Amino acid sequence: MSSEPRFRLGVLGSGKGSNFVAIADAIATGQVPAQIALVLSDAPEAGILARARARNLPARFLAPGRFRTKLDEETEPAYVRVLQEAQVDLVVLAGFMRVLKARFLEAFPRRIINIHPSLLPAFPGLEAWRQALDHGAKVTGCTVHFVDAGVDAGPIIGQQAVPVLDDDTPETLHQRIQAAEHTLYPACVAAISRGEVAVQGRRVSWRKH
Ligand code: GRF
Questions:
Q1: pTM of the model
Q2: Alpha-carbon gap, residue 72 to 64, rounded angstroms
Q3: CATH fold label, 114-209
Q4: Would you call 116 a catalytic residue per the annotation?
Q5: How many whole angstroms from 8 Cα to the centroid of ligand 1?
Q6: Among 11, 58, 78, 166, which residue is least crowded by beta carbons within 10 Å?
Q7: Per-residue pLDDT for the chain (209 aa), expressed as one digit of tens each?
């Protein structure tokens, strides 16, 4: 048997899972030297779970508890435990709609990343593409960043710009941002998997080996 790539990803999502698919496809074609150890969702019917199972990857719904935008004091340790049992090296948030609290962050220091549909620090929060459009921005994009205690606030790993067109609707702009995400996220995961990404304070640098 050929040796499996060692770097293990735990992917968390609440939605359709298009970023998960982009990463899984990039792994399959050898662009990302990692493997998906586990896909976890807080929504039993989430597309990300179906898409993971269709690829024969371990995929689990884990009940999120009683809050709407975060995990509670019982479910957060359960998420951490399941990810630790899967021996995950990097937690990849791909549309996970809950804020992670201190206990989760401390379990995976500088090993949790997220993708956000704007050029942070502009337009954090929900529906960032609509915020960009409403603001009249001419350029927006997407950002991959380390997750810290703030919302969409951790050190920036990579960004890709997307122009805002005169006739854009929220839907067309969101679509083009997502297309950019599907290139940016695998590229960032690949660099981290190769050990090419170093963090010093807020500054993240990429070093080729
Ligand atoms: C992405 O657009 C990402 O920017 C945001 O959540 C969305 C997830 O989409 N954080 P998908 O489930 O990967 O299709």
A1: 0.96
A2: 7
A3: Rossmann fold (3.40.50)
A4: yes
A5: 21
A6: 166
A7: 455 658 999 999 999 999 999 999 999 999 999 999 999 999 999 999 999 999 999 999 999 999 999 999 999 999 999 999 999 999 999 999 999 999 999 999 999 999 999 999 999 999 999 999 999 999 999 999 999 999 999 999 999 999 999 999 999 999 999 999 999 999 999 999 999 999 999 999 999 87
